[in-house]
């Protein structure tokens, strides 16, 4: 596990964007796993800038998003579909047929999960997965106490997650109670992982993810078992990560 501590949110985001750009340059047909939420927003902005100013080429890139709310259609501004097109896909030269996001409106959600998992395999698996982290340590929408061996599945969101994400909706009642999410197993099969965390409110979860026991109660702790994880933090998220010398 590599831990990089950057001065602030912007520096953290630029570092992450550089690493994603490096992946794209080294393997132009990479399969990227993408996250939503507030944390990766500036990283996406930076990738768009690199596309415009430095010709960063997305034309052979495939992307799989981590998750999507159940019951929000693609045009809903709170859907992760909308978010991804608004913040990245509409501004780079990625091909539409290479963009994959779970369909939260699918009639048969179970079949949709199976289909999504197969698509990831058919495309050769994920080369680089970007993750954020929830205050409760979730990654994707894998809430505490879900089995590590889960693949893409339907999850019931925790009250804490519903409350945290209600900031994007006009009222908490509008926040969907369920989502489709890649499972921990799906995430762990990625060849490389970058986890981003910014702000004091993530510091406790970050500390437990890095130093705590590896338990389903803190989903991100499973990353300690992955051979190629980089955690990029800003100073606030790193406030309890003092002793990084003993981390390999
Ligand atoms: O970056 P944020 O908005 O703090 O969200 C953290 C995590 O929570 C989620 O938005 C899900 O609640 C994840 O997609 C994200 O990684």
Automatic annotation (TrEMBL):
Occurrences of domain Glucosamine/galactosamine-6-phosphate isomerase (ranges): 27-224
Catalysed reactions, semicolon-separated: alpha-D-glucosamine 6-phosphate + H2O = beta-D-fructose 6-phosphate + NH4(+)
GO MF annotation terms: glucosamine-6-phosphate deaminase activity; identical protein binding
PROSITE patterns given in the database record: GLC_GALNAC_ISOMERASE (PS01161)
GO biological-process terms attached to the record: carbohydrate metabolic process; glucosamine catabolic process; N-acetylglucosamine catabolic process; N-acetylneuraminate catabolic process
EC number: 3.5.99.6
Signal peptide (residue range): none
Keyword Hydrolase appears in the UniProt entry: yes
Keywords: Carbohydrate metabolism, Hydrolase
Pathway connected to this protein: Amino-sugar metabolism; N-acetylneuraminate degradation; D-fructose 6-phosphate from N-acetylneuraminate: step 5/5
Record HAMAP family: GlcN6P_deamin
Family: Belongs to the glucosamine/galactosamine-6-phosphate isomerase family. NagB subfamily.
Described function: Catalyzes the reversible isomerization-deamination of glucosamine 6-phosphate (GlcN6P) to form fructose 6-phosphate (Fru6P) and ammonium ion.
Protein's name in the database: Glucosamine-6-phosphate deaminase
Native source organism of the sequence: Caloramator mitchellensis
């Amino acid at each position: 596990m590599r831990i990089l501590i950057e001065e602030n949110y912007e520096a953290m985001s630029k570092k992450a964007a550089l690493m994603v750009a490096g992946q794209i340059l080294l393997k132009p047909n990479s399969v990227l796993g993408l996250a939503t939420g507030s944390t990766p927003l500036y990283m996406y902005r930076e990738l768009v800038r690199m596309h415009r100013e430095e010709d960063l080429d997305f034309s052979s890139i495939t992307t799989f998003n981590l998750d999507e709310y159940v019951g929000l259609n693609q045009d809903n501004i709170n859907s992760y579909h909308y978010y991804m097109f608004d913040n990245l896909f509409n501004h780079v030269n990625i091909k539409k047929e290479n963009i994959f996001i779970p369909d939260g409106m699918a009639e048969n959600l179970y079949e949709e999960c199976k289909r999504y998992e197969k698509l990831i395999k058919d495309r050769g698996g994920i080369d680089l997965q970007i993750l954020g982290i929830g205050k409760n340590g979730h990654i994707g929408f894998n809430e505490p106490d879900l089995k590590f061996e889960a693949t893409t599945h339907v999850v019931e969101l925790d009250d804490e997650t519903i409350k945290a994400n209600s900031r994007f909706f006009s009222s908490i009642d509008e926040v969907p109670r369920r989502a489709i999410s890649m499972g921990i197993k799906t995430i762990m099969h990625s060849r490389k992982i970058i986890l981003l965390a910014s702000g004091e409110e993530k510091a406790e979860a970050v500390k437990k993810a890095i130093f705590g026991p590896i338990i389903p109660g803190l989903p991100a702790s499973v990353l300690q078992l992955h051979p190629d994880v980089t955690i990029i933090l800003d100073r606030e998220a790193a406030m309890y990560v003092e002793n990084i010398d003993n981390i390999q």
